[in-house]
Specification:
The chain is of the alpha+beta class. The chain folds into two domains: 11-197, Electron Transport, Fmn-binding Protein, Chain A (Pnp Oxidase, Chain A); 204-288, no CATH class. Helices cover 26% and strands 22% of the residues. Strand 3 (46-51) and strand 4 form a beta hairpin. Residues 21-175 form the Flavin reductase like domain. It comes from Chishuiella changwenlii.
Length: 291
């Protein structure tokens, strides 16, 4: 595959990198200055970085125009607390409106029509409409340079999380199918976490997988199995026994004319469909079955 290379600090690079590192969750940060004035602003250079203690990191970049700092960073340097309000589809347009560079002292909660509610541990208010609100104490701020577009890494420890009650099941878990979260892409594009876009991948830490290198050569070289398919097959710890494969074959013989599946190419097409459905065990039975 051919590639084309680009150097940093060019317009093309700055555009491409935001497409490459995406989707990015949105940190909708509420802060206050030393006088208690509230600011609310979104940042997509953001993620969860640790669990013990729970740490989020987000970065209000210096303004590209003149290298000046944003109100969020200024506020945090004056009062080292914030609330990270997670953005769902219901408030995505209001979140965008809050990103406008209003003059200092303007309350973005009011401009964006969002409801400010008191936090329990920190002083900045929460966004009532947000499905998750993370009260945070800032542990450190790391400024990279004073140049336009430079990062200012705000390392924030989560001291309390608030979750919209209707999202919690009887075990106090949430389902990604119910969240309707959004994330930032490049340019003006966003993505939406809808049921059709959600899928599962088995965690390899649950087993010590065989690895693609240990798959049969005819499987690795198959025209019908993708790299994802091979990854699924290589993630099993042990293969089915001969007895298990024979039992599976006997059950199939009661329903199918297996002679139709004698060509390896035909079986690989069946295997690809089974892997699409997440049925790795049956896929291996078809691969190991002698017809």
């Amino acid at each position: 595959m051919l590639t084309k290379s680009f150097e940093p600090n060019t317009k093309t690079f700055n555009n491409l990198i935001k497409h490459a590192v995406s989707p990015r969750p949105i940190c909708f940060a509420s802060t206050i200055d030393k006088d208690g004035n509230v600011n609310l602003s979104p940042f997509s250079f953001f993620n969860l970085m640790g669990q013990n203690p729970p740490i989020c990191v987000f970065s209000p970049l210096r303004k590209m125009r003149d290298g000046s700092t944003k109100h969020t960073l200024d506020n945090i340097l004056e009062h080292s607390e914030c609330v990270i309000n997670i953005v769902d589809y219901n408030i995505v347009q209001q979140q965008s409106l809050a990103s406008v560079e209003y003059p200092k002292g303007v309350n973005e909660f009011e401009k964006a029509g969002l409801t400010a509610i008191p936090s329990e541990i920190v002083k900045p208010p929460r966004v009532a409409e947000s499905p998750f609100q993370l009260e945070c104490k800032v542990r450190d701020v790391i400024s990279i340079t004073n140049e336009p577009g430079a990062a200012n890494l705000i390392i924030a420890e989560i001291v309390r999380i608030h979750v919209r009650e209707e999202l919690l099941d009887e075990n106090e878990n949430v389902s990604p199918y119910d969240l309707d979260l959004v994330a930032r892409l490049g340019d003006d594009f966003y993505s939406r976490l809808i049921p059709e876009s959600i899928f599962e991948v088995a965690k390899p830490t649950r087993t010590i997988g065989l690895g693609i290198d240990n798959l049969p050569t005819e499987v690795k070289n198959s025209k019908f199995l993708t790299g994802n398919n091979l990854g699924q097959l290589g993630n099993v710890e042990t293969l089915p026994t001969d007895e298990m494969v024979e039992k599976f074959k006997h059950q199939l013989e009661e329903r199918l004319d297996l002679e139709k599946f004698k060509p390896i190419e035909v079986r690989h097409q069946v295997v690809a469909k089974l892997l699409e459905q997440g049925d790795v065990n049956s896929a291996w039975f078809w691969l190991l079955m002698k017809i």
